[in-house]
Amino acid sequence: MFDVDLSSAVAEIKRLKARIVALQVPEGLKKRAYQIAEDIENNAGAEVLLVAEPCFGACDVPSSLFELVDAVVHVGHSPIPSIRFSKPVIFVPARSRVPVNDQLRKAVGLLTEPVGVLATSQHLQELDDVIEGLESMGMKVKMGEGDSRISHVGEILGCNYTAATAVGDEVGSYLLIGSGTFHGLGVHLATGKKVVVLDPHIDEPREIEQAKDKILRQRHAAIEKAEKARSFGIIIGEKVGQRRMRRARELRKLLRWKKKDASLILMDKFDPEKLKALGFDAYVSTACPRIAIDDVAMYDTPLLTPHELEIVLGVRRWENYTFDQMTDDEF
To answer: What is 213-320's CATH superfamily?
Structure first.
């Protein structure tokens, strides 16, 4: 269901004269990883080490890889321009091949003009067709440019909605091309506007408002449980694109001001057993914002985002709840 064009990656490997490269692919492409690795070896002449660990974004490149290889081939995500790696990372798009034209006609009646049009990285190539389709039906369209973590106009990440907020005062609703619920809910919470999702894997457009209650109930339960905590572990991600040291220190200062015990913790791969062994009453993740939300069922101890900690400590109201974002002013 995705097109992966390796030609630019092969040319770059040859230009770099890389002898050993690591290959990262997202979970949805793991079954094709062997074929991708074989194509690189046959066409670029480099030895390929296939990375078995999960890969959830352009920030998810372990520093340990650079000790073993000359370059990394990272499939399925757009580069984050503000991240600087110690060795070359070659980004290869994985573009969806599922059309959304039928859904688009059904979505028009759900939208309020002007419409902000957004896409996740796997669906960026569909933006032009969607905009053309909306305009042909007489709708006004806006596209926002994100901050320095965003590669393309109209692109959003699970940790960054600045392309949406950039036009938040100019639009009546958003149309998002992407799969799942998380990205659309993030846009809705960041802007307060209606979000309609065109998911290429289902037949009908989806209003995100209908899907948010379950997630918000889970987050409210984690916040309530953390209100009883006396000790907090503040987790800093080891991956360079998730290493928010300044944010972690700010949270520790806030906790200590509120008479709570707080320590900084360095972690690469999140593991409930690791956190259980450390013995804190609650944890706050300054790494990937999705970990606390997507993996909530894995953790017996509350795992919060920075915004949720602010609610626990009374410096943010629940009515102002938003998903945590990684923006260019936090690094």
So the answer is: Diphthamide synthesis DPH1/DPH2 domain 3 (3.40.50.11860)
Global pTM reads 0.90
CATH architecture of the domain covering 101-204? 3-Layer(aba) Sandwich (3.40)
How does pLDDT run across 224-251, given as a tens digit for each residue?
999 999 999 999 998 888 999 999 999 9
Do residues 61 and 241 make contact, with C-beta atoms less than 8 angstroms apart?
yes
Tell me the per-residue pLDDT of 56-113, one tens digit each, with 9 for 90 and over.
889 989 888 999 999 999 999 999 999 999 999 999 998 877 778 888 999 999 999 9
How is domain 2-94 classified at the architecture level of CATH?
Answer: 3-Layer(aba) Sandwich (3.40)
If we measure between CA atoms, which residue out of 150, 173, 177 comes closest to residue 161? 150
- Bridge-based pairing of strands 261-267 and 89-92 is unpaired
What is the Cβ-side half-sphere exposure of residue 124, based on CA atoms within 13 angstroms? 16
What are the tokens at 164?
A: 């949406």
